[in-house]
């Protein structure tokens, strides 16, 4: 299907951003003309409150218009990548963005160097809204270096490309043979082959992929070691005690939170994961589970079909307890054409919610009438509602929430829908599928990710101690941790230890633990909301309105869950245990 064949009601309406190219060009020229004015404040923008406010007025004006311009071109090119006019817009915006970034480099440096001046400015009531911005910059002072050293570090950062090297390694695999016919195999199609009920197909696909990782293990090992050494280098230069401390510093948390998550998932509540493996083995009727069995579904996927009207009816029911105002946001998304629904030629794959302070939070998806399409839609609507509420309740400078809390709103919505569908399941098979989906997603984020996090932490520690990370060392560590993780309940294939080389997150810095926090928080909040806990609902809605006005941990505490407290994890993992018990009953 081509885009021009799709009814307008199924496409997002980008004319709400710019109704004409004249309006677009007008903003482009304003930004172009205002950027040089920013540089005029270099060396003096902290001299007085009045000068600071003058600078911030221009800064916000330029930043907002540039965000709006960038959003328009980014959204347009994702649905019409072949449109040469849009490609030109994208290229021009990229150049303008670089020009803007270069013009405000002095801003953070001068705030960092002039702490007393910056804090004095915050004493003026007119500047209170900049408190979080300035304090976030000042937090880095103990780790900020001389201008010359900062310049060298920036150059070093551009030269260190472990992740880019990883992305450039393209492996080719032998085809999978089924009934004498060849089937294409890559890292994406492997996922589908591992769901095949025929054990020989699963094993064949698994071996053909990971024997290639073994063949190139020295290259992957060198790249992964390089990634670890990059993190160690920057953490030491910036006077952090460890790469872990340097990474979590950006999220305004301490290593204790990371370690708490690992303890909860890999020790305190790990027995529930092992119970999940026992259930899996029993349901599959296998004497032993093997590495290539672990993505085999325990129940049949739902073949139910949903129109868009069906989907929205379910979504409205799922979020009912969040109140009328929340429902109205979803109605606006539907009625004001925030959403681009249908797959078509050249449209970007996947789904996302994307917007800025001066646009609607648009949603790109590919709705195909299956249950996963409904979950994707409610997930992205969670992001868009979060953005809408933050943008409408915070001033621009405090509106853009951080990645650390971003997945909470979307995952809460998914859990609300899951809880509704499980409660209202009409058949045993339907309930089996929904419960399995819930426990499978929980184990994937709240057990699998902490296992990954433990592995990358071990590697960082070894790199920090100048211990070599050869292919054998890397794969042996992964093998040992896998044995511990599976508790002897999975027979590891001889190639399974090479799968560590194919996990993208290992090549960049300490990210996966955030998935666990997000899902633990979301599962607890969603359960309380579904049960009609009015205090929780009020706290959660306040959280959605708060943007980046507080630190991530403060925001989650505002939402009614404190990630620093054990009770959150107890409630989340005990909820997983309850779902396991319910699944055993219906299976």
Characteristics of this structure?
single chain; 587 residues; mainly alpha; three-stranded mixed sheet; two-stranded antiparallel sheet; 24 helices; 64% helix
Secondary-structure blueprint of this entry?
Elements: H1 21-39, H2 49-79, H3 84-103, H4 105-113, H5 115-122, H6 131-138, H7 147-159, H8 162-168, E1 176-178, E2 181-183, H9 187-193, H10 199-215, H11 217-237, H12 243-249, H13 255-268, H14 270-284, E3 289-290, H15 308-318, H16 324-335, E4 339-340, E5 352-354, E6 362-364, H17 371-393, H18 403-423, H19 428-464, H20 471-486, E7 490-491, H21 513-530, H22 534-544, H23 552-558, H24 566-586
Parallel strand pairs: 3-7, 4-6
Antiparallel strand pairs: 1-2, 5-6
Helix pairs in contact: 1-2, 1-3, 2-3, 8-11, 11-12, 11-19, 13-19, 13-24, 14-24, 15-18, 16-17, 17-18, 18-19, 18-21, 19-20, 19-21, 19-24, 21-24
Overall description:
By secondary structure, the chain is mainly alpha-helical. A three-stranded mixed sheet has the order 4-6-5, covered by helices on one side. The protein has a two-stranded antiparallel sheet with strand order 1-2. The model has no long low-confidence stretch (mean pLDDT 95).
**What proportion of the residues is helical, as a percent range?**
55-70%
Could you name the ranges where pLDDT drops below 50 across 5 or more consecutive residues? none
What is the tally of beta strands?
A: 7
Shape: globular
Biggest beta sheet summary: 3 strands, mixed
For the largest sheet, list the strands in their spatial order. Answer: 4-6-5
Question: What is the CA-CA span between the terminal residues?
Answer: 40 Å
**Class based on secondary structure composition and strand pairing:** mainly alpha
Oligomer: single chain
Average predicted confidence as pLDDT: 95
Helical region count?
A: 24
- What percent strand? under 5%
Radius of gyration: 25 Å
